């Protein structure tokens, strides 16, 4: 089993990112930041994160998108602003299909979301700074075990939110 920590839209928060890292870095195999950190790549809080550039990021070293392979799964990471994710997942779905992605991690809308579309899992961890449609400042921990993906959702202040946990089955 492999574990992935996913955060997004921290908008300048560094102490909170460090707390999240310390809480989970020993148990995870990959840490993803889906953009709008508003911090430079060299900043301590960003160390260890695979990060993409959001619409509020000025760091030129962050790519617009990135793919990573973990546990035999292709993970596509983007902020989402180039794909109109506030309106539809269709554009992002097309790009995921081009890349043969199994899991898509994105942000931009600040809305916690997890949805399986045609065998591809789309995850938006919400925002740890400015959440929308809920009060909790959320991030996600994925556990990948073969074709089973377990998603756990955490609030930066109160910890895990058990009622938001979900299990997904991906095709092999």
Structure, described:
With 172 residues, the chain is mainly beta. It has one domain: Metallo-dependent phosphatases (Purple Acid Phosphatase, chain A, domain 2), CATH 3.60.21. Helices cover 11% and strands 36% of the residues. It has helices at 15-24, 90-98, and strands spanning 2-7, 30-33, 49-51, 65-70, 73-78, 103-105, 112-117, 120-125, 138-145, 148-155, 159-160, 166-169. Strands 1, 2, 3, 9, 10, 11 and 12 form a 7-stranded mixed beta sheet that branches. The protein has a 5-stranded mixed beta sheet with strand order 4-5-6-8-7, with helices on one face. A hairpin with a 2-residue loop joins strand 4 and strand 5. The longest helix has 10 residues, at 15-24. The model has no long low-confidence stretch (mean pLDDT 96).
CATH architecture: 4-Layer Sandwich
Global shape: globular
CATH superfamily: Metallo-dependent phosphatases
Whole-number mean pLDDT: 96
Rg from Cα: 14 Å
| Number of H- or I-type helical stretches | 2
Distance between the termini: 15 Å
Q: What's the multimeric state?
A: single chain
Order of helices and strands: EHEEEEHEEEEEEE
CATH topology: Purple Acid Phosphatase, chain A, domain 2
**Portion in beta strands:** 35-45%
Number of strands: 12
